[in-house]
Amino acid sequence: VILVCACVLTAGTVGTRDLHVARARRRGCLAQAPGRSRCEGKPRGLCRRSEQQPMNLACSRLRGGGKERAKASKEPAAPSKDEVVQALLGAAGENLKMGIVGLPNIGKSSLFNLMANTQVPAENYPFCTIEPNVARMKVSDSRFNWLCGVYKPRSRVGAMLQVTDIAGLVRGAAEGQGLGNKFLSHIYAVDGIFHVVRAFKEPSVEHVEGSVDPTRDLQIISEELRKKDIEVMEGRVKDLEKRVLRVHQKELLFDLQTAKYIQAGLHNGTDTRFLPLSIKQAELVRTWSLLTAKPVVFLVNVQDSDFKSGRNKWIREIKCWVSKNAPGAKTIPFSVGHEAQLQSASLDTENNQDDVSNGTRPISMIPKIIKEGYKSLGLIHFFTTGSDEVKCWTIRNGTDAQHAAGKIHSDMQKGFICAETIHYEDFFRLGSEAEVAKAGLRHSLGKQAIVRDGDIILFKFGATGGGAKSKK
Description:
By secondary structure, the protein is of the alpha/beta class. It has helices at residues 2-26, 57-62, 66-73, 108-116, 142-151, 180-188, 214-246, 250-267, 279-286, 304-309, 315-325, 336-344, 366-376, 401-408, 410-414, 424-430, 433-438, and strands at residues 84-85, 97-101, 133-138, 155-157, 160-165, 192-198, 277-278, 296-301, 331-334, 379-384, 389-396, 416-422, 443-445, 456-462, 468-471. The strands form four sheets. A six-stranded mixed sheet has the order 3-5-2-6-8-9, with helices on both faces. It has a four-stranded antiparallel sheet with strand order 13-12-14-15. A hairpin with a 5-residue loop joins strand 14 and strand 15. The longest helix has 33 residues, at 214-246. The radius of gyration is 30 Å and the shape is flat. The termini are far apart. Residues 1-15, 26-64 and 120-130 have low confidence and may be disordered.
């Protein structure tokens, strides 16, 4: 009898233990290692240090996972190839700003004055600009001009881009040199960067580094932005490490791994916007507003004679640097002297073509500069047209029809029915709405259809009191 009872008790113990192990396996808690301790797979309350058995990885996880969390937090979370996405890391929304950045005395404020047609001080000494200057500038679009010619509306509202003139940075700005911390904070407030570099020699215009070397100047600004981000990420990593040790949350661990991944990339000389990121990582990094996550358009200020001849000894070297350090970024040569001459001669620059042609008419690069800044932020616009008004509505590239309707009015988004759309190319080719409809090229878009740049849209939406309304 005693022997039978002993067997029954032993079988019951083994069955209970196997149940704990099975539950642990379902939760993914068991370590894939040979040999298991007596407490393996048991719930937290059943694992006793007094049993004098080494704590297994499974027990460690069940007891809060301190060692496992510490180990995981040391490993930067690089995404797999299937997870990598191309995403803009700037702020969400359409009210975005570009900032003009560079060393002192390279023509930043002069360019800002020409772009905005204002008179911001632009003197031949460093830190002439202290507080940032802001202006809204028209985005040149030949499609908008053509539509206005067709409808001859009483009101014309084109697309606009907000641009900020930021004081010059110097070597050591990340450590506070030359009011660097204050000026860097101004860059945090914008969403994209016009990086201006000087590519001409002029004895009367002082250079803060003592000589003209465009690639050196590009490197100085890029390194200062990266150093500031490294400083910011070091503080973020320390804060997250403390929080992960206090609170066991999967999201906090993900944040810490991503922060360390970004930090490691910055230390290796890779700007944040060029690091492979998953969708979830991109959404997180976007909230950090890092300087190296902002899109950049490079502007090369050359002499008037160099611009007209199309020759400059530094241009090829600059383009090679950009190709290596900022692949895919635009490089636009321009001349402050040439632009000043155009404005003083009262030449119309608004309707110039976006690209430089070989014609005899002097060409302004300002419309192209503004448009490239607009595009670098991921902005596009659609049109609403009529005899009363032709208007550009700025949205982010990839916006669906329902959210585009909300750009006009929130009631249109809530009561959205459809968006009757004409592609600009079809309208331009056929010449009228009637011909477009006759050709069957008027499209009806649903809520999730993506709006294309330049679409002409008539929105239909449900009114609050029933029925339907439309807005064109």
